[in-house]
Structure formats: C-alpha cells, structure tokens
Known about the structure:
β8 (141-146) and β9 form a beta hairpin. The chain has a single domain (23-178), classed as Glutaredoxin, CATH 3.40.30.10. The chain has helices spanning 8-11, 64-74, 76-81, 94-101, 124-128, 166-178, and strands spanning 28-29, 42-43, 51-56, 84-90, 117-119, 132-133, 138-139, 141-146, 152-158. Helices cover 24% and strands 19% of the residues. The chain contains six helices and nine strands, in the order αβββααβαβαββββα. The strands form three sheets. The chain has a five-stranded mixed beta sheet. A two-stranded antiparallel ribbon has the order 1-2.
Amino acid sequence: xxTKTVTVAETRPEIQFAKVGQPAPDFDLPSTKNLETLAENVxxxxxxGKWLILLFYPxxxxxxxxxxxxxxxxxxxEIRGVGAEVIGISTDSVFSHRAWLKTPREQNGIEGLKFPLxxxxxxxxxxxxxxxxxxxxxxxxxxxxxxxxxxxxxAVVHDLNIGRSVxxxxxxxxxxxxxxxxxxxxxxxxxTLKV
Length: 195
C-alpha cells in the first residue's frame, strides 16, 4: 500500500497562493479600524501607494502574540517614518480583537495598539498565504511585506512559539526600498552592492 502526501493546493485548487514577486492576494476583512462600531473593513486597496506589513498571528489573549503586536505598535512612528503601515491579522473575530484591545497591557492585553487588527475568521486569507494550521484553524506567525504597487516582496514564517523582530523587519523593509542589491547584514545607510 502506498501513501501519498496531499497538499493544501491539491485539496483546495481554487486558492491562489501568495508568491514573492507576484501580486499579493487581495483582501477585504472586518477590522478594528473603528473600535467602537467595528464597521470599517481593511482592504489591500486602502494601502495602495504605501508599503504594508501584514503581521499574521495565531490567537488573541495568548502569550507571545501580545509581545509582538505591542513591539510593532511601540515603534509605529519608525515604521510610518519609512512609508509603511501595519495590519495585525488572526482568525479571531473582531469582537475578540476589541476585547483584547480594551484589556490593559499589564493584564496581557494590547490596549493602546496603534494599528488595526483584522479578522480572518475561517482562515481564507491565511490559507492564501499558505500559513493556515487547518486542524487548529489558526495562522502561523507569518510576516509579509507588500510594496506600494501591491506586489509581495518579502515573506517569513515562524512556528507558533517564536516571536518576530521589529529590527529585522525594518532592516528588510529599508533594504527593499533601496531597490538595490543589499549584502548580508546590510544596514540602513550602508551602500548597496555595485555590479
């Protein structure tokens, strides 16, 4: 008897997976842009002309997630200073997001977060980025950078227990913005490679 590994692409052929260098999958998701009414969605088209960081995370009210989201929020001025915005995304509902956003940081909340959280209930967008853990219906820690024209330029995926680095995200973002060839460990302000 032979066994065959079945990929998500084989079981869900309608999904167009995200690929670096290709247009990012479009989205229109419920969000916390208006925390009181929860009536304002976030759309990829809202960010045309800006760099966009999609910050997928597994679940609200967990342990590593608030450290990441608040770290990006605490440095949002630096991120916006280089022409980028951030959206946090999980498979939780906007109601869960709102409750978490209203919970003080000292109680494991993310009160004062300076960017919206989007709700990907059902994991359709996470599936398009190939980071959906289907048996748990949560996203892995995926970080994606989309350029001002809507092209996916960077993708990194972490397992559930490892947080991401704001420093590295800013370094990569600024490297992408040079349009040049950036050597290993390139830092903003350094020369790009000459060919």
